[in-house]
Write a structure and sequence with these properties.
By secondary structure, the chain is of the alpha/beta class. Helices cover 41% and strands 14% of the residues. It has a five-stranded parallel β-sheet with strand order 7-6-5-8-9. A four-stranded parallel β-sheet has the order 2-1-3-4, sandwiched between helices. The structure holds phosphoric acid mono(formamide)ester and norvaline.
Length: 307
């Protein structure tokens, strides 16, 4: 197994499913009140160039529940000293580094120059931790046979979708991106997914065709962190891609609604959908804790099976 958690594409399907199974076990241990100090005495550095609620708190709470500690760095990488100099300092003190950066290359560079695991907590390109939590929530609602499910991601082909595409390259699932022209996913990841996807992989601009038969309808903000200047223009371009009751009616009657959060209510999703019984957004948010603990408990122990 690779040392770092940068991209789901770096893992094989069995390794990804092992993270998910461990996340389920750790979730049950939390519910049962069973202590699990697998990372006793270990420290994780958390680097945030961008804002965060879920990622910041779940990594802190996760390390606490695993018996370890976190230290926080709120800074833009490469501004005060080089990325590699900073990383070489950190590896002398901590047992792992989690980073949320603008440039994906900075997380990759850090991983390459240190001996401790580096965990990608969102870059402009990818958000792999999110997808582990999402799939954990999806399995809880729809069962473990992911290969029979269709996920329709409606909106921007952004970092969250790119990581879903990487997931679909490794684990059987049917994945469709429904987006306005010009807002498709990363071309390199798309080409790989078209070649390697274990299920159907479709990119379409047609909302009805894309959402038809979906077991899960997923959306995310139209303008991601760092794209704030484009927000007004994007609001017009994406208007027909809003997930509202009419759009949800195109999916299967028992389809769930998913969103990584934070949501811009009234833009990419309406209140009636995100607040409906079909919405599993807070299950996804809850599972950030358990899924990331599975990654931490595996990688910070050198890939050894945790429990
Ligand atoms: N979904 C997600 O990553 O949330 P935060 O930006 O609040 O961490
Ligand atoms: N695509 C969003 C995800 C936030 C969790 C962003 O990058 O801002």
């Amino acid at each position: 197994m690779v040392k770092d958690f940068i991209s789901l594409a770096d893992f094989n399907g069995d390794e990804i499913l092992a993270f998910l199974d461990l996340a389920d076990k750790l979730k049950k241990m939390v519910k049962d009140g069973a202590p699990h100090p697998l990372l006793s005495g270990k420290t994780l550095a958390l680097i945030f160039e961008k804002p965060s609620l879920r990622t910041r708190l779940t990594f802190q709470i996760g390390m606490y529940q695993l018996g370890g500690k976190t230290v926080l760095i709120d800074d833009i990488l490469g501004r005060r000293e080089s990325v590699s100099d900073m990383a070489h300092n950190l590896e002398r003190w901590v047992d792992g580094i989690m980073a949320r950066t603008y440039r994906h290359e900075h997380v990759v560079e850090m991983a390459q120059c240190v001996h401790v695991p580096v965990i990608n907590a969102l870059t402009d390109l990818l958000h792999p931790c999110q997808i582990l939590a999402d799939v954990q929530a999806l399995r809880e609602r729809k069962g473990a046979d992911l290969g029979s499910l269709k996920v329709a991601f409606v909106g921007d082909g952004n970092n969250v979708f790119n990581s879903w595409a990487n997931f679909a390259r490794r684990v059987p699932i049917n994945l469709t991106l429904v987006c306005p022209p010009g807002y498709e996913a990363d071309p390199e990841i798309t080409a790989c997914a078209q070649r390697e996807a274990k299920g159907e992989f479709v990119i379409t601009h047609d909302v009805s065709a894309g959402v038809r038969g979906a077991d899960a309808v997923y959306t995310d903000v139209w303008a991601s962190m760092g794209q704030e200047d484009e927000a007004a223009a994007r609001a017009e371009i994406f208007a027909d891609y809003q997930v509202n009751a009419k759009l949800m009616a195109l999916a299967k009657p028992d389809a769930v609604f998913m969103h990584c959060l934070p949501a811009h209510r009234g833009q990419e999703v309406t209140d009636e959908v995100i607040d409906s019984a079909r919405s599993i957004v807070f299950d996804q948010a809850e599972n950030r804790l358990h899924a990331q603990k599975a990654v931490l408990a595996t990688l910070l122990r050198g890939g050894k099976q945790a429990i």
